[in-house]
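Hi support team,

I'm opening this ticket because the web form for multi-chain structure prediction keeps timing out on my end. I have pasted the exact lines I submitted so you can reproduce it. The total is 700 residues across two entries, so I didn't expect it to be a heavy job. Is there a limit I'm missing, or should I split the entries? Thanks in advance, R.K.
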Amino acid sequence: MKHLYKFLILIVLLSSFNLVKAQDESKLNISGDLLTDQRFLLNTDNDWAWNENRLTLKFDKKITSSSKFYSEIWLRNMGLPSAAHMSDLYNKGIIDPYNLEIRELYIQMYGFLFDNLDVTIGRQRIVWGTADKLNPTDNLNPLDLEDILDFGRRRGSDAINLNYYFNSDFSLQAVYIPFFQPANLPVGIFANALFPEMELPNGMTLKGFSDTLLTPGYNLAESSTAALKFKGFVRGVDFSLSYVWGYDGLPYSSRNVLIPIDMAGGIKINSQLSFIRTHIFGVDMATSIAGIGFWAEAALFMPEKDVIMVNDLSAIYGMPVTIDSLLIDKGKPYLKFIIGGDYNFADGSYFNLQYMHGFIHERGNEELNDYFFMRYEKKFFSEKLRFAPVGGGFIVTDWSDLKNNYALAYIPEIGYKATDDAEIIVSAAIFDGKGDNLFAQLKDYSMFMFKLKYSF
Amino acid sequence: MKNKIKLGLLIALIASGSMFSANAQDANDILKKMDAVMYSPKDMTGKNKIILIDKTGKEEVREATIQQKGNNKRMFRFTSPSSQAGIAVLSLPDDVMYLYLPAFGKERRIATSAKNQNFAGTDFSYDDMESKPFAEKYTPKFVKVEGDVFVLELTPIGKSEYSKVIVGVNKTNYYPVSTEIYDKGNNKIKQAKYTFKKVGNYWNAEEIEMTDLKKNHKTKMQMSEIKYDSGLSDDDFTVRKLKQ
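Hello R.K., no limit was hit. The queue was backed up. Here is the completed structure from your submission:
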């Protein structure tokens, strides 16, 4: 263990030495964008659904010919004023909510120690997978589910990332993330979109709820994530094989204690939630055949132990009574996968179709649903105007009873580049469906969306 | 008499056959010489200024760096405007292309159908940008000599969006001076003008002006800070480099 620490310190020292040595070799580039993202519901009152004003700052410095520094920071005014009491008016954070977020901050060294080794140290986004935005093998960074419509968004992780290139076609990547970071959940109207309503025994009414989140202990054995990926290119096909020893960033309910609080069946639940150590084996590929781009990606998730939820009814019955439910059997790993393709037509239009089995929040073979995502767009006026009349997804949760178990998300979009640096995007998200699935739960939240992004 | 007529016809046929053959041979030679002028450097690096001009004359400027090795490896990286800075395209042999978008943090394999598309809002398609020798893409036919220029008609050998390309080749130095591009309906859809300048031992396309005749839109590509044969290796044209 001591050797590992020494090694880490050595790497940091060497990188900081390089930083100082070459400080003047290149200037610090500052770029970024200013984004406003406004959404309101298409219901009668047109309630505001989303208000985000984000300044993204990117700092990029080529330190030497073989190293660089990069950082991306978000400064955001997010959400709507939520003052409910007079005292809240003394709190600027409530009246005018904003936050600062370091998305990435790392040093990258090329040819470090060995000519063929690239090392990246610091907070970084490590993107895996060949599919378009929805990647079952992309499991190193914690999910950023804040905006449920921004599929595939993840936060950066503090990591050491080594890439060894055997030659131009084959490479091996090793990643070590010392600290576990859980996913952050959707906010605003999307807050409950990912979780089904709690089912209670007949005659019981939920009157109170509290929970305790059990995070892994912060030591090398418990909180670490480690991963390997072998990447190659053979006969026109890009492929990779990967393995992640990490955590499922969304917690499972591991113990629920039901406590009666009145004689009319009212109960309070104290829930314990925990994160499950998971082995993830991944494979992906991408190629182009007859002009059509093809990709496929699959990840096999194997929890290290059975995931069991214990419902403790002892307080109700006055004697020890527990009911165990097996949520995921460690002997029955579940497979998420996606296949897709795209094509560019001669008239400048573009078509993209993907079929996915198992969305980011779904776990266990029985819980994985089928998703079809499609997008068709065409650009006009020298690519200034982008029109996507077809966009969105179709979900099937039960093929045997399709009419009661489906959802549709229709998301058409128009983007206009007023200048090279400024783009206006107007879109809508129309949700419909039946049954227990992600987009069907959003059917009361169809919305109009407006974005303006200025890059500098 | 009859025999004389037959002999005359035979001579005429042989003569026209030889002429046709000579012209075809000339056309092949001219095209090969043009390819030799365009693709003779072992490698090239430089800066590329792209000026987009719409029908009202309004201009937009984009800048990029370009690296090329041989005639089938190329790295193109935008440096401005801010909205596009960092976007890079790596072209490799056998139509393998990767796009790197900094916002996504990973490379993406591009479907070869993208070759039909305009490159980054310019009037050049990915296909036009390809540095594959013309002699490998087209069958040439000699058309005429016009002043200092040989005029050739090129017919695509493989699948193409074009029916033919008329290319003008400088008689003395064999660099192209103009191209006219025709669609499948034989309509002239684009035309390009080339300005060549000698840099060291090589002729360099200092400016290419491509006009889309349908859209009445122009793109000027200006090369600067050109360096030839600086010793770029195959390792400079890898996904590893694309992401750096």
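A quick check on our side: Residues 4-14, 19-24 of chain A have pLDDT under 50 and may be disordered. Let us know if the file doesn't open in your viewer.
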